[in-house]
UniProtKB/TrEMBL annotation:
Gene3D superfamilies hit by this protein: P-loop containing nucleotide triphosphate hydrolases
Entry coiled-coil feature ranges: none
Family to which this protein belongs: Belongs to the GPN-loop GTPase family.
Lineage: Eukaryota, Sar, Alveolata, Ciliophora, Postciliodesmatophora
Name recorded for this polypeptide: GPN-loop GTPase 3
């Protein structure tokens, strides 16, 4: 009896999902493509789901596509909504059709690892509940879920953009309540790698001082410094660089996210479970 109870608990989270978020143009689809390719070289199966009902093109192999259930154009025409309202309604429709989503996910096989390529409207993750509801649906189906927030590395060159990006990532982290990893994309496009490392090592409070030097920003000096203080003292937002030209960089990103959703730990548990089953 105890063995079968343990088996039920252990098999509950042998499915893994990354919610790949970020502003439009931040490299979410590129991230999904490169991680899928990297997994192929390791003999790992990584699936990708497109969650953008308005998507037109992506390079990765798309295993599940929300557009097969609902498209943005259909929602906008039928309900006379704008792009943002139509997008939210389309994802809400997906959540309501849990059976369709479950059938699609179950059709992928056991021990799934899936990347979910999300739309670029950041309000979906920062203050609306629709993505939080989607995450809950995945958990109910049996997935261990982690958040991946993509930010274009050029944001680091502008102190104001850096602080804004950090706040957006923090808001998404707080809203979704899942293990969270922030990825700096497009690092392979930077010629001066040393400057990137310097920015990653720079304390947010020092960046805030750079913002306050301008005449306009001086009025908000205390406010900016308070934000930087929160980021520094609580150490809530850290960025991991992703350089497509560096295999070590790709491996490090995969490792960090696997750790956050306990991918390796659950595999070890599965091996022990198989041994128990043979002994039984």
């Amino acid at each position: 009896m105890w063995y079968f109870l343990i088996k039920i608990i252990m098999t509950q989270y042998f499915r893994y999902a990354q919610i790949v978020m970020g502003p439009a143009g931040s490299g979410k689809s590129m991230y999904c493509n490169i991680i899928q390719q990297h997994a192929d070289t390791l003999g790992r199966t990584v699936r990708v789901m497109n969650l953008d009902p308005a998507a037109e093109y992506f390079k990765y192999r798309c295993d599940i596509d929300i557009r097969e259930l609902v498209t943005l154009d259909d929602v906008m025409q039928e309900l006379e909504l704008g792009p943002n309202g139509g997008l939210v309604t389309a994802i809400e429709y997906l959540i309501e059709n849990t059976d369709w989503l479950r059938d699609q996910l179950d059709g992928l096989g056991d021990d799934d690892y899936i990347l979910i390529d999300c739309p670029g409207q950041i309000e979906l993750y920062t203050h609306m509940t629709v993505m939080k509801d989607f995450v809950k649906t995945l958990k109910d189906i049996g997935f261990s879920v982690g958040g991946v927030y993509c930010i274009d590395c050029t944001f680091l060159s502008d102190p104001t953009k850096y602080i804004s990006a950090s706040l957006m990532a923090l808001a998404a982290m707080n809203q979704l309540e899942v293990p969270h990893t922030n990825i700096l994309t497009k690092c392979d496009l930077i010629s001066n790698k040393e400057s990137l490392e310097e920015m990653l090592d720079t304390d947010p409070s020092e960046i805030a001082l750079g913002i306050a030097k301008s005449a306009y920003s001086a009025k908000f000096k205390s406010f900016t410094e308070s934000i930087a203080k929160v980021l520094t003292e609580f150490n809530l937002v850290q960025f991991i660089p992703l350089d497509l030209s560096d295999e070590d960089s790709i491996r490090n990103v995969v490792y960090q996210i696997d750790q956050s959703i306990q991918y390796g730990e659950n595999l070890e548990s599965k091996i022990n479970e198989d041994a128990m089953e043979q002994d039984y």
